[in-house]
Specification:
Length: 52
């Protein structure tokens, strides 16, 4: 089995509402499972954005 890491993020408030980190992770984890990838241990880092 191959090992993989996944990365999910949102860049704008709209993305945060419509495509959450949790929904992205669910899709990525499902894909990894369907394609016989073992995921690295999970870590997370949340950072608030600010508009320039």
């Amino acid at each position: 089995m191959l090992t993989a890491a996944i990365y999910a993020r949102v860049s704008t408030p709209r993305q945060g509402r419509e495509q959450t980190i949790e929904s992205q992770l669910a899709v990525l984890k499902s894909w990894a499972d369907e394609n016989s990838y073992e995921l690295s241990p999970e870590t997370s880092s949340y950072c608030k954005y600010r508009e320039l």
